[in-house]
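ARCHIVE CARD
CATEGORY: sequence design from structure
SOURCE FIELD: tokenized fold
FIELD CONTENT:
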């Protein structure tokens, strides 16, 4: 919902998409002149409107949290027995999950979203790619290659299933596991609804685990505007269905454009695509000179990831390629 790194060294700098300030420092231009395709955020965000002064001025009531949680339960078909915790972004929950169990070994298959490994390492866990473990993290679908996991992969005493990009393919969701002991599901609002700056995410799992996470996040963790916008968006099923169709069509268009220019599709979702190219750094440089920011990885010289351009950005991308 977003960065990927195959480096499990907790002291290594975490690598993410975004970072337009650095791109501007290297290639010039202003933020309004740049098109950022380095993230997997929907370029057609949900429309924000009808916020009130009280949304900004008042501390949110408990009822607003309950209303948002109920909208989330219906939208994601959360099973009975699973509790829902709205949070200020999925990353805020990721940082706190390792504190729910004693330090041990956690399995994280790479490459994947690197904040999971960083969070566990920061709390004294040993991060490893396989072997006997007390915890496991699966990003489903995976970032950056779009790998889909199965119920059999949720096999550790503490299992984190990060579905930050699963709203584009709800049929693949493992949400039915949310009431299983030791399972925590993560959902990101910013990716599919295109409102990453709102900072809204969800943790879903057994009541005791979610209650402990709630204690760690503290009161009023989600802002009044995020509560209102999130509740409205999660009830707008028509928008969600239309958006999935639009993203699928635009993904096919991007694949055709990139493969015509010599790239090979590796995987991804309909919010981002991972391509193999002859020299990823050269491709990023060529795009950056046209003020288009793309995503490359420290563990691969040939992987290039692109998000979807906005409606008026297709001709710019084709010209830059």
């Amino acid at each position: 919902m977003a960065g990927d790194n195959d480096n499990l060294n907790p002291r290594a700098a975490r690598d993410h998409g975004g970072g337009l300030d650095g791109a501007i420092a290297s290639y010039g231009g202003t933020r309004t002149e740049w098109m950022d395709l380095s993230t997997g955020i929907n370029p057609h965000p949900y429309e924000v409107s009808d916020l009130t002064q009280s949304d900004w001025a008042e501390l949110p009531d408990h009822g607003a949290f309950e209303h948002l949680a109920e909208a989330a339960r219906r939208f994601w078909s959360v099973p009975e027995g699973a509790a829902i915790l709205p949070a200020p972004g999925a990353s805020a929950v990721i940082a706190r999950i390792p504190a729910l169990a004693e330090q041990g070994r956690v399995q994280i298959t790479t490459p994947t979203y690197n904040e999971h490994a960083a969070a566990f390492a920061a709390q004294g866990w040993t991060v490893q790619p396989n072997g006997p473990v007390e915890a496991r993290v699966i990003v489903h679908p995976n970032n950056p290659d779009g790998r889909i996991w199965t119920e059999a992969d949720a096999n550790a005493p503490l299992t984190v299933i990060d579905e930050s990009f699963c709203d584009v393919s709800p049929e693949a969701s493992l949400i039915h596991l949310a009431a299983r002991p030791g399972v925590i599901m993560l959902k990101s609002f910013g990716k599919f609804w295109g409102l990453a700056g709102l900072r809204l995410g969800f943790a879903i799992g057994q009541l005791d685990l979610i209650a402990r996470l709630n204690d760690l996040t503290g009161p009023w963790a989600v802002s009044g505007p995020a509560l209102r916008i999130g509740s409205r968006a999660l009830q707008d099923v028509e928008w969600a269905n239309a958006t999935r169709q639009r993203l699928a069509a635009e993904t096919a268009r991007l694949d055709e454009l990139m493969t015509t220019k010599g790239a090979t599709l590796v995987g991804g979702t309909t919010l981002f695509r991972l391509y193999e190219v002859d020299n990823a750094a050269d491709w990023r440089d060529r795009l950056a000179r046209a003020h288009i920011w793309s995503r490359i990885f420290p563990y691969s010289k040939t992987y290039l990831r692109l998000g979807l351009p906005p409606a008026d950005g297709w001709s710019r991308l084709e010209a830059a390629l």
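CARD ANNOTATION: The two ends are 26 Å apart (CA to CA). Confidence is low (pLDDT under 50) at residues 1-13.
SHELF: design records, drawer C
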